[in-house]
Amino acid sequence: MTSTAASISAASAAAVVEAALKLSSVIDGHNDWAWECRDTRDYSVEGLEAGLSTDTDIARLRTGRVVGQFWSVYVNDKLAGAEAVQGTLEQIDWVHRLAGRYPDTFMLARSAADIEEARANGLIASLLGAEGAHCLNDSPAVLRVLARLGVRYLTLTHVHNTSWADSATDAAEHDGLTARGVDYVRELNRLGMLVDLSHVSPATMHAALDTTDSPVIFSHSSCSALHDHPRNVPDDVLRRLAANGGVLMVTFVPQFLSADYAAWAEGAMTGPAPRVTISDVANHVEHARRVAGIRHIGLGGDFDGTEEFPIGLEGVDGYPGLLTELALRGWTAEELAALAGQNVLRVVRETDARFAAPTSSTPILVR
What are the transmembrane regions (predicted)? Predict the structure, then answer.
């Protein structure tokens, strides 16, 4: 266990967490429930209240104190062309139908004001994030349509490179971004859509940070310094978040948290899986805080996006447990509130004006 301050008692930690959640409930950067419901439920939005085999259901979201969720409108990048565009639209439709089916639980959200309204009314703000620019079929027009439908961020790549950006998990082709990739980042800025740098290579991270005039996010990544996984973020990138204003949303995927677990998962998987716990997640959170600063960290669980999660964080009801672990390490209520939701809420607010009126300027890319 690492520590930012002297540890405190369990009772005091619980009080700190409650105080933090009064200041800011959880706003999570990435959840793949829509894709899970495509895979296992034929996109049904019925019966989602409780007792599901998924990492997410309504009861667990309430227990987890989630007030804002970026639902990933993801399609596997084995889908290409018009099929990828169609799949993304189906994902968006699922989130819209989810909110329509459960109006006492979910509210579609496009802005910081929407998130605050949802919280005031006891609802879960439902935002959209598109994972992987393959979903655009290299069409800026599709990007603009997604913005009109309420998509607030675009992850520049997924597992594989696009024609204009390098992925973290593919052989480099572009040394980061091509000239067209630079223009896509500028178009995202113009639209008020957040540039999401999870899944991209370090060269792409730096190229995007060199280009963007708005804060970036990492919707679900962890720290290379603790585990040098290609999906994690190096310290030289983390250090740039202070000047950029962006946020690393630490993820809970065991392969990104633990070298031992990654070796097991990527090998023969013989014997029991190495233990990964809330403490491992807290270590990544604390490292990101030390390098990037308290204003530049958040949470992006990736629930329903992988098979296993750390002990104590098996579903969306686990966020208070993580906050408790950090409180036991000496985090204050104000610091926990910044991590839980205030930081990413600030980033959304800073880009709201452009997102509300993107037609006030000329597109960077037309075709």
Answer: none
Which one is catalytic: 131, 196, 286, 304? Answer: 131
Rg (CA), the chain: 19
The separation between the first and the last C-alpha atoms of the chain, rounded to the nearest angstrom, is 51
* Element spanning 154, H or E: strand 151-155
What's the CA gap between 210 and 197, in Å, rounded? 13
30 assigned to active site: yes
Respond yes or no: is residue 227 known to be catalytic. no
Residue with more model confidence, 122 or 80:
122
CATH number of this structure's domain 10-358: 3.20.20.140
**What integer pLDDT is reported at residue 6 of this predicted model?**
53
Catalytic one of 28, 57, 187, 199: 199
pTM: 0.96
What's the distance, CA 189 to chain centroid?
18
199 is catalytic: yes
Q: Is 175 a catalytic residue?
A: no
Task: State which H helix or E strand residue 15 sits in.
Answer: helix 10-23
Residue 287 a catalytic site member: no
Residue 288 has pLDDT above 80, yes or no: yes
Tell me what pLDDT residue 366 has.
Answer: 87
